[in-house]
Design brief:
- By secondary structure, the protein is an alpha/beta fold.
- It contains eleven helices and nine strands.
- Strands 1-2-3-5-4-6-7-8-9 form a nine-stranded mixed sheet, with helices on both faces.
- A hairpin with a 5-residue loop joins strand 2 (about 70-80) and strand 3 (about 85-95).
Length: about 350
Amino acid sequence: MTATDSPAYDFDRFIDGLDGAREPSLAFHPGMDFDAWRAALLERVESLLGDLPALTGAEPEILETTDCGAYVRHKLVYETIPDVWVPAWLLVPATASAEAPASGILALHGHGDGKDPLVAQDDDPGNIYRSFARRYAERGHVVLAPDAIGFGERAEEFRRFGQRDGCNVNFMRALLFGINLMALNIQDDRRGLDILGALPEVDARRLGCAGLSFGGTRTMYLGALDRRIRAAVVSGYLTTFRAYALDTGNFCGSQFLPGIYAYADVPDLHGLIAPRPLLIEAGRADRGFPIAASREAHARVAAIYAAAGVPERLERDEFDGGHEYRAEASLDFMDRWLAPGSPAVS
């Protein structure tokens, strides 16, 4: 720059320069050894979670029970780390018992009202979750649907900062202590798997996870990090960091691990779920997660599944719709892959 040049004050130029100057150091490329790549990236993701308080082993407490016919709905609460409690809905089909245990599915909500729309008993067309937790239970799966930090019953005081986004402010508050919200939510979700797998009505060898949007993000990370997940459905999230974070700012302090893009892009993180089955749902009219970016990312995930030797275990349901849970294809997906004798659970 010379004295006659106009200085560039646009911060986007700096961010674009960072993104254009390098690619994530552990991004997958065709020809790589899948197992070696996966081990290296998993080690890095685990390190980015940081030092977290240990999970507790306290027994969950059932607060209420409702007989819904095809299933029983329990309201329960459980401790994850000391003095941190999670409220959740637990749906147990009438066909599940200690003598005939069913598969278990962890159902994760996105930004919004928390867990309740996932278990709604009506078919309100305005419900973007399509009551998918309830529908899994009606198909014979035991389902646990918890509230994430700052949502549903855990929203109290989380958004008390006027017009500021509570996710962003609380992200910074936690970061003062070297802790981030995504890691804490992953910790909570791991505890949810503990609760689900310990139920006498559940076969702990047949656990799945499904979520929309922020719930899809958590499904991605949990599926990558926890091998107890034998099948995963990610709805309304597969994209690239360039498309949804850098270009549109469509993310928040609850939605990412600090530093992750230095090592991996969103498709790489989905690829860590391989060789276990993964279904991607994508609405062609999803404005927050453009379909072109989803297709680009899907091709990259497909290359990873091919390298893992299981291209058929990556499935895609692309539909005419927006930012919503499709449910129909995922019902059959979970039925197939979490069935007794499925190659995903054997």
